[in-house]
Amino acid sequence: MFYTYVLQSKKNGSLYIGYTGDLRKRFKEHNDNKSTYTRNRGPYEIIYYESCLNKDDARSRELYLKTGMGRRYLNARLKRFLFHT
């Protein structure tokens, strides 16, 4: 399984979208400042994830969620959650 995921910084509320084959390991790397793009912006919480059967699907989903339409999809999907932060 591969995962497309969305993290939210508890520090400033910013979102990070990524994909991985090991969600638990990758989440720990983000919170341990071992990821270049999320370093010093944590701690993070996983607010959304999707599972995919293969890497290409997870990567495609990540790219979609980073587009304007993908962001609108996430905002609609996470509306209640995002407004309570």
Molecular structure report:
With 85 residues, the protein is α+β, with helices and mostly antiparallel strands. The protein has a single domain, classed as GIY-YIG endonuclease (3-Layer(aba) Sandwich), CATH 3.40.1440. Helices cover 40% and strands 27% of the residues. It has four helices and three strands; from the N terminus they run E-E-H-E-H-H-H. A three-stranded antiparallel β-sheet has the order 2-1-3. A hairpin with a 5-residue loop joins strand 1 and strand 2. The radius of gyration is 12 Å and the shape is globular.
Structural domain count: 1
State the helical fraction.
40-55%
- Strand tally: 3
Average pLDDT over all residues: 92
Assembly type: single chain
Structural class: alpha+beta
Q: What CATH architecture do you see?
A: 3-Layer(aba) Sandwich
User: What is the top-level CATH class?
Assistant: Alpha Beta
Q: Please describe the biggest sheet, giving its number of strands, its sense, and whether it closes into a barrel.
A: 3 strands, antiparallel
Q: Which fold name fills CATH's third level, the topology?
A: GIY-YIG endonuclease
Return residue spans where pLDDT drops below 50 for at least 5 consecutive residues.
none
- What is the H/E order? EEHEHHH
